[in-house]
Amino acid sequence: MSRALIITEKPSVARDLVAALGGFRPQEGGAYWESDAYVCTFAVGHILTLLEPEDLDPAYKSWRLETLPIVPRRFQYKPVSGHEKRLDVIGRLLKRPDVDRLINACDAAREGELIFREIVEFFGAAQPVRRLWLQSMTPEAIRKGFDILRSGTDLKGLSDAAACRAESDWLIGMNATRAFSVKLRGPERESKPWSVGRVQTPTLALLVERELAVLSHRPRAFQRIKARFAAVGHEYDGVWHDPKWKKQDDLDEGKDDRIFDVARAEAIVRAVTGQAGIATETREESQRQAPWLFNLTALQKNMATRYKWSSKRTLEAAQRCYEQHKVLTYPRTSSSCLPTDYPAEVDKLVDLLAGVEPYAPHAAFLLKNGRRNEKRVFDDAGVSDHFAIIPTGKIKDLDGDDAKLFDVVVRRFLATFYPPAVYDRVKRETVVLKEHHFRTGPVDTLVDPGWMAVHGKEVDDGEKLEKLPPLKSPAVKVREAKISAEQTKAPPRIAEAQLLSLMENAGRSVEDEELAKALMSAEGLGTAATRADIIQNLKAKQYIDEGLRPTAKGIQLVTVLRKLPVARLTSAELTAKLELELTEVERGKRRRERFMADTAAYTEEIVDAARSMDPAALYPDREPLGPCPLCKQFLVYERPWVYACASYRKSGPGCEFRIAKEFAGRYVDRVTASELVVGGASAELDGLRDGAGKPFRSLLRVARDGELRLDGEAEAPRGPGRSAETSRRGKESGSGATAPRRSGATATPPIAPCPVHGPACAIIATRGAYICEQRLEQFRQAAGDAQAKLTGFWIPRVICGRDLTEPELKKLLERGATPSLAGFTGRSGRAFVASLHLTPEGGFRFEFSPNARS
Question: Which residues, 6+ apart, have CB-to-CB distance to 630 below 8 Å?
């Protein structure tokens, strides 16, 4: 008897299918199910991944520009680590002689097509394919879907688009990362790869753009005028504003209620005090509609705002509620709607919640008054591969994060069907002497909490909103007017909820209307399922810190890329263009081969831009920061990693003045550098970090010897064997000190004498390594193959995923070996324990104790 093999994207979907179709028997402990007509098994998302370059050719293990671009003739797959057993089950089922056809029951979207395609291609399966296309997972919808299976060829365009997206991301990301890592990486700058990607780099650019605005902002004083008015029966406040004000440009910090001229503000106060005015007001009902059901991004934003959770933390809790507790539906969804056949399921859920505290009164309200907003909620067009996140109907005693998240989702589910919240909104405008306008409000007073009642909002629960009695007469009088002296503030840094919104709505930043539309329809940068991983990856690559603040490395990457012909890498425009073309592939208007050829050509442009990049040429002698404070003869200009005197040379005669672009963990922006060059000191800066990584504020100043110091920090004596030249040169560019003593990269005292070159040469710490001064100087002067002949001490600061601390380094130098150290991770991902032993060449080797590997 022949059977069709059903392959689903997730185990839960497989269980739903076999339950709806009936007649299945579990096999091998639930590894798959079998009936007279079907065999059903499942993937666990992506269980295959594209081969790495070194898997294609061992020559690619070494990252060299000469081997780029890497463009495989045929993309091939390998198992994702940990999923080998699952693949073995699927492979055995595909090879069964009674399996003569396949049913693709993966999610009804591009990613589902890709997961199925990967499996079929990996095993070379040749059986004909039928496609199950579901938007609803009710038993009736599942059975109907099997009655109207589509031909696999109907969705060839979608399948091709899925493959094109995965392969183009591989081409762009792999080649760009290798190309720019080769050009930007160095022991005194950064030893880890400079990762570049189609989605992660534009996301980083959003954060960098805001960070530069924050770093370069300097407070500007302004005045705001507040007046107290006497009306019939009450008094009220108003703020002066200029109704004719218009923003001049993006750098304009003005607003219609800000006065930057003190004399003008004082004149207005004198003119209006004690004068009569005419007040007018509007009173209208204002409604706040019930919120949409949660998709993953909306849930992550809500939890970030409510509890300050990261998107990763929210996703992890949602996954546990789905997989482990089974109290919520699938969380990795971009949909905020339910299928049109789901009202009966919702009725069951509301009935159930009517008996569960603390949701019972809110569910009872819906049972009594009926559901609202049904057209918006039940909409097949708004459902993609998964519908919105809602309760499943299972009730469990949860705790911790899972309990909090479940509560938020249940309340949102109930609130979505509630009527709007209703406010009385009052706006008042008062004009004095026919030319001075004062604004009051808008003031909102809650009249009916509507859906907000689900969250505990009541009319009399302390709104703390000023209530304005109605005007009985337009005639009022200014009792007093006074000036409030204030300062402009830097724009706030982007919090996680805002970043998720910016990624989701990235299409709004694309000027081309067609590209913007394509990006908006494709969910923006990333997807609901991948945005948490993208943000986490930026942290892992050390482009941003845990608070989403870009590091000097992240700022440098975006800055360099924007100066090259491939600046599109930092913009959502690249994703928009690819999405537009992928849509054409999906609709059969563009051949897959043409799309990949165009992507390969763009990849070659990226590699060529990196190959021909001369970092110095990116910063020509234009827009000087000011005269050199050290030599007094030349101007200071921005360079790739520093701000330096025009006569500065790494070796040989010349002025030695320069300021590295990172100091004490803070990026030194042009405004700060200009203050240091011109005035010898900066404004008070935040974001500096001490040796323990704790943030602090301080002014920076340029000392008499041209070195950069913290305010009040004494000039430290030079260590033994450190000439003035090497003292300054050992701090080049962006290595980022955490305990500053001098300007620039290392900004730390010598750690110890070099065991290779002797006491006249000191070991210092850069961002990526512990290195002796002579080897560092050799590296700067060497090129090409000569770099392989460097001599002296050099050990990476991160070894097999583990940080080597300075105390551990000192033990290595003093004793020739460290004690056994835990926390190393091998290539296979397994942890191990080992001691480090110093080699005569100034490197190290591992020694393993018996049973040290784990």
Answer: 645, 655, 656, 657, 705, 706
Residue whose token pair is 């294609």: 56
Cα gap 87→65, rounded to integer Å: 36
Q: Pairing mode, if any, of strands 3-8 and 221-231? A: unpaired
Q: Of 740, 743, 732, 742, give the one whose Cα is nearest residue 769.
A: 732
Known active-site residue 543: no
Share of the chain residues as helix, strand and coil, in percent rounded to the nearest 5: 35, 20, 40
Please give the backbone phi and psi of residue 67, each rounded to the nearest 5 degrees, phi first: -95, 0
365: which 2 tokens?
């309200």
Cα separation, 717 vs 652, whole angstroms: 23
> What count of other Cβ atoms lies within 10 Å of the Cβ of residue 718?
15
Give the residue from 4, 87, 78 showing the smallest Cα distance to 38.
4
DSSP 8-state assignment for residue 52: P
How far is residue 149's CA from residue 851's CA, in Å, rounded to a whole number? 56
**What is the bridge-based pairing of β-strands 802-803 and 708-710?**
unpaired
Which of 685, 662, 758, 740 shows the shortest CA–CA distance to 216?
685
| pLDDT for residue 724 | 32
Q: What is the dihedral of CA 799, 802, 807, 810, to 10 degrees?
A: -10
Greatest C-alpha distance within the chain: 98
Q: How far apart are CA 402 and CA 360, in angstroms?
A: 20
Cβ proximity of 231 and 472 under 8 Å: yes
Sequence-ordered list of residues with C-beta below 8 angstroms from that of 163, at least 6 positions apart, any chain = 75, 114, 117, 592
pLDDT for 186 equals 58
Q: What is the pLDDT of residue 11?
A: 93
Exposure string (b/e) for 135-159, b if CB count within 10 Å is 16 or more? bbbbeeebeebbeebeebeebebbb
Amino acid 780: pLDDT: 66
The mean pLDDT value for 78-103 works out to 95
Rounded to the nearest angstrom, the gap between the alpha carbon of residue 700 and the centroid of all alpha carbons in its chain is: 30
Structure tokens at 279: 């007040």
Q: Per-residue b/e over 446-475, b at no fewer than 16 CB within 10 Å?
A: beebbbbbbeeeeeeeeeeeeebeebeeee
Q: Which residue has the tokens 């929210």?
A: 314
Whether the full predicted model's pTM is greater than 0.90, yes or no, is no
Q: Quick check: 426 and 441 in contact, CB under 8 A? A: yes
pLDDT at 721 over 80: no
Q: What CA–CA distances, in Å, run from 444 to 255, 287, 301, 430?
A: 23, 10, 25, 18
At residue 735, the pLDDT reads: 35
Catalytic option among 32, 236, 330, 667: 330
Per-residue pLDDT averaged across 34-63, rounded? 94
Of 134-148, 633-647, 797-811, where does mean pLDDT reach its minimum? 797-811
- Please, where are the H alpha helices in 757-801? 773-781
Give Cα separations from 426 to 467, 485, 491 (angstroms). 9, 27, 29
Return the number of other C-beta atoms located less than 10 Å from residue 793's C-beta. 29
Residue closest to 798 by CA, chosen among 546, 535, 540: 540
Q: How far is CA 167 from CA 51, 160, 717, in A?
A: 11, 10, 56
Query: By the 8 A CB rule, do 279 and 430 touch?
Result: yes
Q: Residue 854: what pLDDT? A: 39
Own/partner pairs, 30-36, CB within 8 angstroms, 24+ separation: 31/89, 32/89, 32/93, 34/3, 35/3, 36/1, 36/3
Cis peptide before 759 (omega within 30 of 0): no
CB 608 within 8 A of CB 66: no
What type of residue is 45? G
Q: How far apart are CA 450 and CA 26, in angstroms?
A: 48
How far is 691 from 712, CA to CA, in rounded Å?
17
State the Cα–Cα distance between residues 690 and 171, nearest whole angstrom.
40
